[in-house]
Amino acid sequence: MDPLFEELLSLLRCSLNKQQPKETHLTYEQWEKIYWLARAHGLVAMVNDAIEMLPEDQKPTGNIALSWILSAERTQFHFQHQSEVLASIQQKAREHGIQLVIIKGMSLARFYPKPNSRSCGDIDIYFPGYYKFGNQLLGSPEAEVDGKHAEMKVDGVVVENHLHFLDQHYISQRRAERYIKSTLKDTTPEGYLSSMGNLVYLLMHTVCHLTAKDKLPLRNVIDWGMFMKANHDDLDPTECHRVMKHVGMNDAFNMFTLLAGEFIGYDLSAYLKGENIIQDDVVRMRELITSKKYMPPVPKGLSPIQWLKVRYSRNRQRRWLYRYLPSTAVERVTNNIIRLFYKG
Prior knowledge:
alpha+beta
């Protein structure tokens, strides 16, 4: 791993675990590179929390120091505005007596030492049984579903009102969706999923990045680690594995729990006892996450034969990855055939 990325992770771990950073003497150019690495992974504000704990003579200086501070302040200002918008949506839901479930970023921030340092792109919510009324409540009654949700703006903030928690392309996704909905009765008074409901949702949301574009942001894996850390006393490892095997995602659970514990600097080994994890895959997944060396998109305008050749080549290059995706080999082949005819 790049030594500067190791420095980034070291600062991040100090921020996440409220620990004093080790003594460091980085050059201006090194701080600049770390800054852009943090920006690429959406971690600027969190890493800046650790930088603020450094002695003055060890902190970044000049323009790059200003970049750290301004970027962190923007993240925190945006989070505050999102929180106010979310509070207004919660108030409207209470006034109409309907349940509101908060998912993704705005529900995960509470697991961080400084919630407002966790960058949130938008607000994701779910109104059980009141999807259309939810759109009306948000001022966009004609909003159209794009995949699993409708997107709209509320006071300048992007809000995604979910019709489904997950995409419904594969059996694992549909099983997970049913399981999450079965836990809604245990949603917290604040509108958060129960620990087990969140476990399934977050794992499936994490792998959906790999499913859609062979991409997996580091922040998603850190989210997973911070969730597991915060709910360590509530999550029974045996029950976690039972549910993950039910939805067909036990390998992904093991992989991301292992890497998340490494990235955030917290021992999550209690969830991995007796599990056979392929070490070569750990190396590959770590590289995929930290390097962001993703595959380019499939070119447009290809003939059906050319398109199939490109898809086949990509699948061969990443065949190790499919062990951790919510799809069987038969589902993938069928999905590619459907997409081929859809393209035509």
